[in-house]
């Protein structure tokens, strides 16, 4: 029986909640399998959100999340639930489903004892379902398999219950069937969470130890830190210390999220809550750090998280150079909210001052750029994304290249590129198409398994550079949207890679350089020169656009000069007079070409470095 809203404050008081009455769990699933909708029903059933305040995707706080219908940030919420006259406190974390945000999922799993594995009853197990399940198993979590969307006409609950049962190792009859939309089966799921997920274990009398699993920046209150208490307890007005930095602060406020912040008298073993110290410096609260009492500090810190390794690098530059300090401050604040973000300053001859930013994937890049533009009112240019390469030179030195402009000249012994192990789940009718796509992208097949009569799992080793651009789009279009992809880094391999430079009037433009496979260098050169010819306005003199590998030009386009009609005033008369005027104009053009410089407008940079659709928009603007 759910507890009504008015009783909430009494139930929330952590001093009244013993560790054996706490259940910490998260919801994991493939993208678009209904995690946020199921979380909405749980919030309604437990009474923590009043009916008049309820809205779809309640825990998705950002506009981008609501517009795109995806979860980007994990959100923790505390809910009361009563079983057999015993009041329990359920700490739920709603996690993202996209492969780019796996780091968010891994941090959530470390703060829980159990996980609800959610599978769409109309689509079955997909690639990210498997990836998240393996992550949960690595953390020794109790897994509760659940089929969602059983109200859909296309749902096949019996078929997919057997599939999940075989995967998790349970009887298909134990797989719960729920509908996040109608609320059917959600009460039984909450009861199962209380029965199956173990209570948190910790020493209440030991010095306080709490793991920071997330942080956000509040413009009025400073850094808000989210923690999971493992040992001891944290109370208001006591001094706390961060064990990695040694910084000490006074706890101004402590409480739980239910789902709005509710201040409490403290939080104890196994509880999840938030801390506010009034600190404005975003570097003071590091995800993975351990919080302890500064008067009675713990001897050992808790095991933190592995630092995420950026998979894709791109340069971010403000269109207005005076916005550089604003961009730096914005990245600092976003880093607090997104621990997977890495960045360092860099300069470009063409674009000025900016930052080289590391991302976990293309969607991560797109989301970060959109958040910077929306939340901090910035106009940005992002350079073409690229991965890290290790270049071995003849003198046995190794250069790490994160930007094509860093690619060394001279004699190169070997270039190594990162590779990933990709898992693709697809209907059996598209196996040939998917194999063809992977072969085109220099993939090596590792194996193939039939999960059922009509669903196949393909495993490939692929160069990361081949999948960060449009591989996912191509996979979806070739399989009519049915295939799903997950990948994880597996090291590097030697490859025949070259740097393609774009030259305007003989001068290299570093922003357009790219590192590509030797077989695709010509295609890239032809494509980029043709695009720039359309985007750069005509000058008073002829401008050659060239693509070159080293000293060898592999493609060329020419922007014709704007010619002034110098013969307009010559009517009749001797031909030698006309010839004299044309020769004079020719000399002037030649002189102009030697002293003139080609100005590339910002619109051309934006269009050339972004997708084809953005390029078309810029061309329309130019016209």
From TrEMBL:
EC code(s) of this entry: 3.6.5.n1
Q: Which UniProt keywords apply?
A: Cell membrane, Elongation factor, GTP-binding, Hydrolase, Membrane, Nucleotide-binding, Protein biosynthesis
Q: Name one GO molecular function term.
A: GTP binding
Indicate yes or no for the key word Calcium.
no
Record's subcellular location: Cell membrane
Which residue numbers delimit the Tr-type G domain? Answer: 20-201
GO cellular component labels: plasma membrane
Q: How does it sit in the membrane?
A: Peripheral membrane protein
Under Pfam families, the record lists:
EFG_C, GTP_EFTU, GTP_EFTU_D2, LepA_C
Any GO BP: positive regulation of translation
Chief subcellular location equals membrane
**Positions contributing to GTP binding:** 32-37, 148-151
- Reactions listed under catalytic activity: GTP + H2O = GDP + phosphate + H(+)
Q: Which InterPro entries match?
A: EF-4, EFG_III/V, EFG_V-like, EFTu-like_2, G_TR_CS, LepA_C_sf, LepA_CTD, LepA_IV
Q: Please state which protein family the record places this protein in.
A: Belongs to the GTP-binding elongation factor family. LepA subfamily. Belongs to the TRAFAC class translation factor GTPase superfamily. Classic translation factor GTPase family. LepA subfamily.
* PANTHER family registered for this protein in UniProt: TRANSLATION FACTOR GUF1 HOMOLOG, CHLOROPLASTIC, TRANSLATION FACTOR GUF1-RELATED
Q: What does this protein do?
A: Required for accurate and efficient protein synthesis under certain stress conditions. May act as a fidelity factor of the translation reaction, by catalyzing a one-codon backward translocation of tRNAs on improperly translocated ribosomes. Back-translocation proceeds from a post-translocation (POST) complex to a pre-translocation (PRE) complex, thus giving elongation factor G a second chance to translocate the tRNAs correctly. Binds to ribosomes in a GTP-dependent manner.
> What is this protein called in UniProt?
Elongation factor 4
Record the organism.
Xylanimonas oleitrophica
- Upper lineage: Bacteria, Bacillati, Actinomycetota, Actinomycetes, Micrococcales
